């Protein structure tokens, strides 16, 4: 099951997992993406009860659950002082509580299969806060803590939990009209500057992030849990 999978990283993750033979349940506020998914559930995961409804629908369609990818999220640029309590809460509900609720609903299903994989998509901003995205940064840091907590709690039951921290990625969040590039100035100039700020000199492509998620979902990552995988072109250095 992949949340936030009607575009961007989630869409490419669903596409790749399907191509590799998985039965995939997609979800989002938009209609089905049409990448060979077994089921699509239209849902607003910021609302209590909706992640649980999604997990139940996925389990019914698939006959269980082997892997849960939490990818849904919201972001905009803002100064710390202008973000209202209401917006902080909206970010918390979608960027954190949707993950908490989906994991909580998914745990009995993973346990029934003798284990499984949870992958939580965080951000480089969760490791090193972006001053222009304060509420996004704080909620993505919470996702890292949540991921380590779940890994520690359920490793003995064969349930692995890992986080992924992408850097700026060429999705609608950055490239779309009114997206992050437009919010920061002239679109092409902003994108050029942001790309140049990565050691690899460019934004990620969503399929590059999806490849890491697919690995963490697979049996090839059977000894990987409690980790945070950077897929950021070298943006946030390793601390030794």
Q: Can you walk me through this structure?
A:
It is a single chain. By secondary structure, the chain is of the alpha/beta class. It has nine helices and six strands. The strands form two sheets. It has a four-stranded parallel sheet, with helices on both faces. A two-stranded parallel sheet has the order 1-2. Helix 3 runs parallel beside helix 5. The longest helix is centred in the middle third of the chain and has 28 residues. The protein starts with 7 loop residues before the first helix and ends in a 9-residue tail after the last strand. The mean pLDDT is 94.
Strand arrangement within the widest β-sheet reads 3-4-5-6
Average pLDDT value? 94
Return the string of H and E elements: HEEHEHEHHEHHHHE
Coarse structural class: alpha/beta
Uncertain stretches of 5 or more adjacent residues: none
User: What fraction of residues sit in β-strands?
Assistant: 5-15%
What spatial form do the alpha-carbon principal axes imply? globular
Terminal Cα separation, in Å?
A: 35 Å
Describe the sheet with the most strands: 4 strands, parallel
Tell how many strands the DSSP assignment holds.
6
Helix fraction by DSSP (H/I, runs of at least 4): 40-55%
Backbone CA Rg: 17 Å
Can you count the helices?
9
């Amino acid at each position: 099951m992949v949340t936030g999978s009607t575009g961007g990283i989630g869409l490419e993750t669903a596409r790749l997992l399907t191509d590799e033979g998985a039965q995939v349940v997609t979800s989002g506020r938009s209609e089905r993406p049409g990448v060979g998914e077994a089921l699509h559930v239209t849902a607003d995961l910021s609302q209590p009860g909706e992640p649980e409804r999604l997990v139940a629908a996925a389990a019914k369609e698939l006959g269980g659950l082997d892997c849960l990818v939490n990818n849904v999220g919201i972001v905009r640029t803002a100064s710390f002082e202008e973000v209202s309590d209401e917006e902080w809460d909206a970010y918390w509900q979608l960027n954190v509580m949707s993950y908490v609720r989906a994991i909580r609903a998914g745990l009995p299903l993973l346990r029934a299969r003798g284990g499984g994989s949870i992958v939580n998509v965080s951000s480089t901003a969760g490791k090193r806060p972006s001053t222009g995205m304060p509420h996004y940064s704080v909620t993505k840091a919470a996702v890292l803590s949540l991921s380590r907590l779940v890994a520690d709690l359920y490793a003995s039951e064969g349930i692995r939990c890992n986080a992924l921290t992408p850097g700026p990625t060429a999705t609608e969040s950055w490239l779309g009209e009114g997206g992050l590039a437009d919010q920061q100035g002239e679109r092409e100039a902003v994108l050029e500057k942001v790309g140049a700020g990565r050691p690899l000199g460019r934004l990620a492509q969503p399929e590059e992030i999806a490849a890491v998620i697919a690995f963490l979902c697979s049996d090839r990552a059977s000894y990987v849990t409690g980790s945070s995988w950077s897929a950021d072109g070298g943006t946030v250095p390793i601390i030794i």
